[in-house]
Design brief:
- Chain A: Residues 124-218 bind DNA.
- The complex is a heterodimer of chains A (222) and B (468).
- Chain A has helices spanning 10-22, 33-42, 59-68, 84-92, 105-119, 152-163, 171-178, 190-201; strands spanning 2-6, 26-30, 47-51, 75-79, 97-100, 126-129, 132-135, 140-143, 146-148, 168-169, 206-209, 213-216.
- Chain A has 222 residues and is an alpha/beta fold.
- In chain A, helix 2 runs parallel beside helix 3.
- Chain A folds into 2 domains: 2-119, Rossmann fold; 126-216, Orthogonal Bundle (Arc Repressor Mutant, subunit A).
- Chain A has 8 helices and 12 strands.
- In chain A, the strands form 3 sheets. Chain A has a 5-stranded parallel sheet, sandwiched between helices. In chain A, strands 6-7-8-9 form a 4-stranded antiparallel sheet, with helices on one face. Chain A has a 3-stranded antiparallel sheet with strand order 10-12-11.
- Chain B has 8 helices and 12 strands.
- Chain B has a 5-stranded antiparallel sheet with strand order 2-1-5-4-3.
- Chain B is rod-shaped, with a radius of gyration of 51 Å.
- The chains are: A alpha/beta (222), B alpha+beta (468).
- Chain A binds chain B through residues 9, 11-12, 15, 18-19, 53, 80-85, 87-88, 91-92, 96-98, 100-105, 107, 114-115, 118, 123, and chain B through 262, 265-274, 276-278, 280-281, 294, 298, 329-330, 332-333, 336-337, 340, 342, 359-360, 363-364, 366-368, 371, 429, 431.
Amino acid sequence: MRILVVEDDADLNRQLVTAMTEAGYAVDTAYDGEEGHFMGDTEPYDAVVLDLGLPTLDGLSVLENWRRDGRTMPVLILTARDRWSDKVAGIDAGADDYVAKPFHMEEVLARVRALVRRAAGHASNEITCGTVRLDLRAGRVTVDGTPIKLTSHEYRLLSYLMHHQGKVISRTELTEHLYEQDFDRDSNTVEVFVGRLRKKIGSDMIETIRGLGYRLGEAVDG
Amino acid sequence: MTAEPQAESPANAPVRQRSLAGRLVLVAAVWSTLALVIAGFILVGLYRAAGERAFDSQLEVHLNTILAEMVAPDTTGGATPGVQRPENLPEPRFSLPLSGWYWTVRKADSTNILFASPSLVGDPLVLPSIGDKESLSGFAQGPRKEEVRFLQSRITIENISYVIAVAAETAGFREEVSQFARQVGLTLLAFGAGLVGAIFLQVRVGLRPLSRLRSSLSAVRMGDAESIDENLPREIAPLAVELNALILSNREIVERARTHVGNLAHGLKTPLSVIANEARANPGPLADKVGEQAAVMSTQIQHHLERARMAAQRRVIGVSCEVEPVLSRLVRAMDKIYQRRGIALQSSVPGGIRFRGEQQDLEEMSGNLIDNACKWASSQVSVTVRRLQEGGSARSLFEIVVEDDGPGLSEEERKEAVKRGRRLDETVPGTGLGLSIVADLAALYGGRLELERAGIGGLKTRLVLPAL
């Protein structure tokens, strides 16, 4: 799962990135509106945390531009302007949720988790596939009720596959949603992570579809 | 629309100024009454003078007739040579006893009457002495004590000087003058009344633009209009322009104040987020203290910002907004936010209701209520807007009723909830000022917030606000 954080305040940006990374997301970051807009426009994100008061291009315009260009990723807006007119303007511009400043980091994490989950069509914070159970809130994975330890990349890979279980996911798509933008991808190929994950959750859980990619669980339409 | 009652004590109550129309009518009425009275006196005076002149010339005709009759060229010698008693005078009243018409002839150097009209029947006709003048006219008393006008003239026949006096009763003449005065008085009175009426009408029509200005201003104050109609006569059009400028600058000041408040909020909230999150990330006694104080600051900032915003937006004149679009936008936004929790949000908002106040405030109040309901509801929330007609009062009101099927509140809790800064459950995020802010804002607009138990189980909030 890959998240974009657009926030001009350096401290807050760092805090958000740290919290998101700890929660198991690959996090990209931008400090102004234009940079944020460019990144959201060119990279596939599973969710965006967008501050409304940004230099160079305000958050509302960034959001409107994305939506006009057909970018549909869920967007959580952060705003100090917590009047309903501001919140409604944000929602009308295409935001999926908002958090008013000052906020607790847990609040932002919960909202982002809910947005990602909802975008993938899951109603609960626990996603299961066969004997594998993913608790999104705690970031824990159990197999047959036994907790297993995963590295952050393994967790991201499993989380992405669990969110989109039953669908064939290409290597490119996995790569895009697993790594931060400036990560050296050559040394960490998807195949290596899939291999390690298979050892931990059972080799029959992830199926390799030759020439197309990977699939977790039973095939579904679409 | 009712007049504002003056709350001041009688001691320092302003002296009530007479109305402009009253002043104009009063001055015009006093002046025209005075002018008409003077005109009346002058007219009657002229009429009387003309009448007297006519009377005098009539007397002179009689005097000349008497003189003509008196002169007898064939009689000579005696005390009055060439003079005889005048007879056959054309005026019969000289012969009727005490008719009011008299004449006498005497020698100038004697007071003894030579001849006298039969009408005198022996009584004397007492007149002022002619002295050295050739003729004298004036008023005197007749034998019946009636007022008479006389004409005396000195003439000389055969070197003897005579004084001929003719007098006639003035009663008829006096009657004629006073009748004329009455007619003039009545005519002028009618004329004066007409004049005052015309002035009144003129003032009314002339001042009508002022009352138009007043009702236009009142429409702005009531929120029925954005600005004053500037299509007014040249004299007061600048006033309307100035008033419009004042209204505009009032709006701008409020807008600026609000912008400043928003900027302040933005400026403070981001660092507060940083401080609080930093503290939470590094547990310890210092972090606890910092976190706790950051929370206090956050609540304080929120509280005072809300109050500042309220103070800024109070008494903005001439604002109103349509309820339906505001509520629809809010409901649409809430629907999007809360669909993840599976809340069914139903709304019934009829068009055509206008809130008498700021759109932002309406958004704030109804937004807080709906948000609150959505946070607590287990599956459904309903929003209903209705126009109200409160018994007796002519004030137009409307209500926004928000109901949820959540756990609701006990009677105690309902009372607590509208108190300042009270948050009943710390686990549901919020500033804790929601319902009390709504109650305070509603009170500013002369409305109210009521909390009840909802028919569908949870809390029912009823917000009553003024409508146009």
